[in-house]
Amino acid sequence: MDIPSHLSVLGINHQKAPVAIREQLSFPNSKLREALCYLLKFDGIEGGVILSTCNRSEIYISTYSSLFITELLKQFLTDFQKVDYKDLSPYLYFLRNMSVVEHLFRVSSGLESQVLGENEILGQVKRAYFEARAVKATDVSMERIFEKAIKIGKKVRKETNISQGSTSLSSMAIKLAEKKFNLKDKTILLVGANKINEQIARYLNERHIHTVIVANRTYEKAIKLAEYLGGKAIHFDQFKKELHLVDIIITSTAAPHLILKREEVEASLKQRKSELLLIDIAVPRDIDPAVKDFKGVTLYDLDDFNQLIRENLGKKREEARRVDYLIDQALKRINFLVKPHIIPYQLNESTI
User: Fold this and answer.
1) Is residue 345 part of a domain?
2) Is the pTM of this model over 0.85?
3) Which CATH number do you get for residue 264?
4) Are residue 263 and residue 322 in the same domain, yes or no?
5) Which residues are catalytic?
């Protein structure tokens, strides 16, 4: 059986692009399968996986030929995302063949994450792979490299301490809030009942903080999370009525547009005397960045996490070197049926 012999990835991430740029290339869950099916319509693309998180969007493909790959991917982005490729090209990276495998291994291991060693990315890589398989977008090449990437992601977390400590955006969000306020006497509004806010709920519960309001489009999920916290659930379309009653708002939704606009925050300020802290962990962003202009309002988005992350980085450097070594050893054990500068499409079970 002929196997596509070229791998490519076109991506954008937090290292090169601010959130205002990344959100233009985000693939929401509701559109992911549609995007995969559209990708496979391009002549020459045999398999594809799209990994889209709050900090990266990456399009992995396999092809028989190395010709016109960048043109195919440019056209896909331009058509599907309705963006001007020229405006985004300074922020994009393009890798081929062995570099794709190494990059994916580093991503699944948490070495390419904004929060070094964070655990969420491994689950996100799994979900991206399973979504692609669900619509039959994967081929042998995609399946082999993603399955190996998932294995190496598990291996490094088992054999190193890269994931020890504050290693998630959720924990960083709580740390940012604690730098601003003593949380015990504050009322917190969580907008969205997804995995990130579920983790935030666990951190709040550990701190015995129960003055929490949860809003979500699926009300049943809001009820479940609120009950866990001993807080209150509200319907999504009601949360703006609570703005003047809360001290901290943490948003993490999959909405393709702003859910909290400048004028809505401005109106709530007329009814409050205390400061308001907003933490937006969504891509695309949930909260209008213009609210930073208001006195008494502090807004953090993902770009603002970097200082706290740098403070935590020193403790992780040695573990990162150990992860690098494990990845290097895994790459060296890959057997090739073609030249090493092409795709390592035969991966032995002992590779990882």
Assistant:
1) no
2) no
3) 3.40.50.720
4) no
5) 54
